[in-house]
Amino acid sequence: MQRNHARNTDGSIYHLCMAVYWINQPRVIIGWCGLDGRKSQTEPEIFVLLDEAYRNKGYGTQCVRELLRIAAADYGLHSVHGGCGKDNAASQRAMEKGGMVQYGTEENGDPLYRFSVPPVHVCGRRNHRAFLAAPPQPGEIILFGHYPQNSDEPKPIEWIVLENDGRIIRMISRYALDARCYNWERRKVAWAGSTLRKWLNQGFLDAAFTEEECKRLKAMELVSEPDTRYAPPRLYRPTYDKVYLLSSPEAERYFKSDALRICFATAYAKAQGAWDTCCWWLRSTGTPREGAPIVDADGAFRGNPVDSGHGRVRPAVALRV
Q1: Model confidence at 78, in pLDDT bands (50, 70, 90)?
Q2: Which of 87, 89, 75, 90 is nearest to 42 (CA)?
Q3: Of 8, 212, 222, 284, which is most buried with the most CB atoms under 10 A?
Q4: Who wins on pLDDT, 121 or 227?
Q5: Beta bridge pairs of residue 171
């Protein structure tokens, strides 16, 4: 195994195999998972093998998410392949919730899956003409601003394009960048009065963007649309923010499924208390128990107390084209 691992290089995986263990019993191996690149080292095949007693408990999905993160972040791969039997609903569910998309089937009907890293655009003064010549499309990645990610040293922030109307590009951070409460005090509070809004438009804005980059961000008029799953509709005064959170309706509109809403945390955010796959705050109001809505680790919507440490920050911005 070590000999195979030694053949893995940046941009290429020959074979990677890791033991899976239950966090409450770290000495008990419950299965194996990895990436097999013996057919294609630039598009390895994912595999997850768990003991029967630990199947259908979400561990397979966690393995898929971590393997895709390793492939993209640690080895710089742009694609991972996967497949399973057409009757294996658990494996299909794990790959879909883990972030893979079905793109076809074998002749016998077995589904084929793939994870692809979207195209990346660099937004800056030097390449502005190229940026305009090939405008980013929804789902693609823009590098803009800097913030600590793997350590305290700032790194380029990856943003997912949500919408591009030719004048502004609305985008959200690809990863959860930090861990913050929605509001320091547990009380009923709207987005306009939250401490998280204040931090995003002061502390985060100053830390993540240069003065020139700040000028390229448009202050958006925002309405904190209530999450009607928890309370009847109510209007709140609009705010004008350069950095903000998505509302519940926006998160549902831009990310069509729970699987697409699943978010990973950066190493820096995890050092602040975030989990690998984490919950992220939304700006909507109307949740019970003096709370605010979040997208949970499985990509579903639920409420969370505003002073909870479980919510993570996934900023959104609007970039002037």
Answers
A1: confident
A2: 75
A3: 284
A4: 121
A5: 161, 317
Residues 42 and 133 in one domain: no
187-191 LR contacts (CB < 8 Å, sep 24+) = 187/290, 187/306, 188/290, 189/290, 189/292, 189/306, 190/224, 190/236, 190/285, 191/222, 191/224, 191/236, 191/239, 191/244, 191/245, 191/283, 191/284, 191/285
Name the pTM for this structure: 0.73
- Pick the last residue of a domain from 63, 95, 116: 116
Domain that holds residue 105: 2-116
Do 176 and 276 fall into the same domain?
Answer: yes
Residue 111 shares a structural domain with residue 147: no
DSSP for 275-304?
Answer: -SEEEEE-----BTTTEEEEE-TTS-EEEE
| pLDDT > 70? residue 276 | no
Exposed (0-12), middle (13-18) or buried (19+): which is 157, by Cβ within 10 Å? Answer: buried
Q: How many CB atoms lie within 10 A of CB 241?
A: 23
Q: Which residues contact 24 (CB under 8 A, 6 or more apart)?
A: none
CATH code of the domain in which 11 resides? 3.40.630.30
Q: Are residues 109 and 249 in the same domain?
A: no
